[in-house]
Specification:
43% of the residues lie in helices and 19% in strands. The protein is built from eleven helices and twelve strands. The two termini are 26 Å apart. InterPro entries: Cbr1-like_FAD-bd_dom, FAD-bd_FR_type, FNR_nucleotide-bd, Globin, Globin-like_sf, Globin/Proto, OxRdtase_FAD/NAD-bd, Riboflavin_synthase-like_b-brl.
């Protein structure tokens, strides 16, 4: 709970902090990595540091959290915090990291804002930080407990059992057993050793339905160093360092209509959700909206077609940016909801590039879907927080 005194101070200084928060977070990461270089090589995505996405996402989360506290000083923005906590848990983040972050973040605030950081201002924003940090620590502790693991046991070495090409630029890896159970729609982190000694981490949605004794995940070659390593260096019989599963894109109970909207490799969590629905003989209506550049690039097209036979309530709508194939697309261009019926009470899940999700979310809201019922998955910094 934000104290009345701090609430007044935060409200008065939020415009100044908000205007400088991008500079603050860039300064912060420079300080943090200078003092703890292993955090850049072995925890944070250094590509997202280089292009500015991670500082932008951190800036957005701080501003969003402070704004939420001003609107309601008692109830924190749990949905935003849950997304961050699941990502942290998949990385094995420990509570001991939060004081380190605090020291370097407030060093950056003091340097950027200078004399404007009076003792009163520092005290108020310290309160904001620890409200957010302690909420995340509590959520992450609960996630470790629910997974029946300790934070130091998040990671395990798993053998690669199978490797197959889904498209010319997408490979599916199957690893394990043994593996912890997971909910359809969740993801794992994968850490790989790179030639310069870095141990970089990326997240991948799990493809399997319920009860699988292994993990399968798809890696599309993106030009990044981790996808290149997985495509070029990993073969059957090798081992991969894989985290326990986490993620908030999971099915709600009930029989309300669903919209699963994806683009490119964002189809992967949707497949897991669909396979779960098929395995449980779900009768709820499901609309799949998928966008892809070409039919040849459409990973899991055959699997999607097979699921249409197993789920009588499934309606598949596909758009290709170039001329579509015979099935299932009848459209060329980008995903548009014009003319598609969106049932009342629909819950929607989105996964794909930010611009795609932003467009589809806007169209869903215009079609009457409640904002609270639109969920999304993004692998990388959540830049949605600053929009």
């Amino acid at each position: 709970m934000l104290t009345p005194k701090s609430r007044t101070t935060v409200a008065a200084t939020l415009p100044a902090v908000g205007a400088a928060v991008g500079e603050i977070t860039t300064n912060f990461y420079g300080r943090l990595f200078a003092a703890h270089p292993a955090l850049l090589t072995d925890l944070f995505n250094r590509g997202n540091q280089a292009n500015g996405d991670q500082p932008q996402a951190l800036a957005g989360s701080i501003a969003r959290f402070a704004t939420a506290l001003l609107a309601d000083p008692v109830v924190p923005p749990t949905r935003m915090l849950a997304r961050i906590a699941h990502k942290h848990a998949s990385l094995g983040v420990a509570p001991e990291l939060y004081p380190v972050v605090y020291d370097h973040l407030f060093g950056a605030i003091a340097e950027v804002l200078g004399e404007a950081v009076t003792p009163e201002v520092a005290e108020a924003w310290t309160e904001v930080y620890w409200l957010m940090a302690n909420a995340l620590i509590a959520l992450e502790t609960d996630l470790y407990a629910a997974a029946a693991i300790k934070k130091q046991d998040v990671w395990r070495q798993l053998p690669v059992l199978e490797r197959r090409d889904a498209t010319a630029d997408t490979v599916v890896f199957t690893v394990g057993p043994p593996v912890p159970s997971y909910l359809p729609g969740q993801y794992v982190s994968v850490q790989v050793p790179l030639p310069d000694g870095a141990q970089q981490i990326r997240q991948y949605s799990l493809l399997d339905g319920p009860g699988s004794a292994t993990y399968s995940f798809a890696v599309r070659r993106t030009g990044g160093e981790v996808s290149a390593y997985l495509h070029e260096e990993v073969a059957v019989g090798d081992t991969l360092r894989v985290s326990a599963p986490f993620g908030t894109v999971t099915l709600p109970e009930g029989d309300a209509p669903l919209v699963l909207a994806s683009a490119g490799i964002g189809i992967t969590p949707m497949l897991s959700l669909l396979r779960h629905l098929a395995a449980t003989d779900a009768a709820r209506p499901v609309t799949v909206l998928h966008g892809e550049q070409t039919a040849g690039a459409h990973a899991f097209r055959a699997e999607l077609e097979a699921l249409s036979n197993d789920l009588p309530g499934l309606d598949i709508q596909v758009w290709y940016e170039e001329a579509p194939a015979d099935w299932p697309a009848e459209r060329t261009g980008f995903v548009e909801l014009d003319g598609l019926p969106i049932a009342a009470g629909t819950t929607a899940f989105l996964c794909g590039p930010f611009e795609f999700m932003q467009s589809v979310r806007t169209q869903l809201l215009e079609a009457g879907v409640a904002a609270a019922d639109v969920h999304y998955e993004v692998f990388g910094p959540d830049t949605w927080l600053v929009n």
